[in-house]
Amino acid sequence: MAVNITQKDKTLNDVIEWCMEQVSRIEKKIPNASDEGFLAGERFALQAVAAHCEELLGYSGSMPLEVPNQSEKESR
């Protein structure tokens, strides 16, 4: 399971990095752009995606240390 979480986190970090690169590109365009409002919206959307990906990093739930054996309950 740890491998899957590591792979998921790597993918999420790749998406976050890509979003931030796009935000940087947009911020360089905005001062001279005639479509400044559109670019600001695009920047906001990319920042929202990056923030959501950050929330998904790692495993936030708790794993039970021991799971009761259901077959033992049925046999009693």
Could you walk me through the main structural features you see in this protein, from its secondary elements to its overall organization?
The protein has 76 residues and is mainly alpha-helical. It has helices spanning 2-29, 36-56, 70-75. Helix 1 packs antiparallel against helix 2. The longest helix has 28 residues, at 2-29. The mean pLDDT is 82.
Shape estimate: elongated
Which blocks of ≥5 consecutive residues have pLDDT under 50? none
The Cα radius of gyration reads 21 Å
Strand composition percent: under 5%
Mean pLDDT: 82
* Assembly context of the chains: single chain
Biggest beta sheet attributes: none
Please write the string of helix (H) and strand (E) elements: HHH
The amount of helix comes to: over 70%
Topology, number of strands:
0
Distance between the termini: 32 Å
Helix segment tally? 3
